[in-house]
Write a structure and sequence with these properties.
26% of the residues lie in helices and 33% in strands. It has 209 residues and is α+β, with helices and mostly antiparallel strands. A seven-stranded antiparallel beta sheet has the order 1-2-3-4-5-6-7, with helices on one face. The protein has a four-stranded antiparallel beta sheet with strand order 8-9-10-11, with no helix packed on it. Strand 2 and strand 3 form a beta hairpin. Helix 2 packs antiparallel against helix 3. The longest helix is centred in the N-terminal third of the chain and has 18 residues. It is globular. The N terminus is likely disordered.
Length: 209
Amino acid sequence: MRKTFFLLALLLPLWCSASGASVRDAWLSMPDSLSPYLDKNLRQELVELYDLKVKAEVKNLLNGNSVMDSLTTDYLSVKLSPSATLQMQMLPTAGGDSMICLVRSYYGPAAESEVTLYHKDWTLAQTLNLTEGGVGAYVAKPDTMSSERFQTLTDYLSPLLVEAQLQPANATLLLRPSVPLASKVDRKAVEAIVTARKLKWTGREFSAR
């Protein structure tokens, strides 16, 4: 049993490389047009620094600092700047291959994300519509709240901006609306009606079912 486990441990990295399932490979082959902060050399430097178990930080192309804070076989996250982050995950497909999920988020004054799916050669497969269903998809009226108060708080979510966060452990997208126009007091009240959405990767798409 121990010999079998040892053999699998040796073969797994080779299998991941052969199947193209490594997020590291996708990160290094990513077109520079999708990464205005980091060209291939800087992305390679981040990986090398992370492997050395030191702070993986580089001076980016926009004269700021970018930091890689997570890197596994199928997932990575990078803080591109104080106002921008990037997450990438390799998602297994029903056909036994893999796709790249790229989540780019921007903060200022409110959080807003773009979620795109790519084939392994970085051809675009799909751009997710995070505002599908409108504000109604992200709110729920408490029983104790009047309809008038609920509508007032709902109006704070227009225009609808959505922040997405990859949950790599279970290949899930967590979606939450931003509240750009509310005061601190009103923001707390709006949070009482906000409902996060979870989309699970099915092997073909992200689905709420």
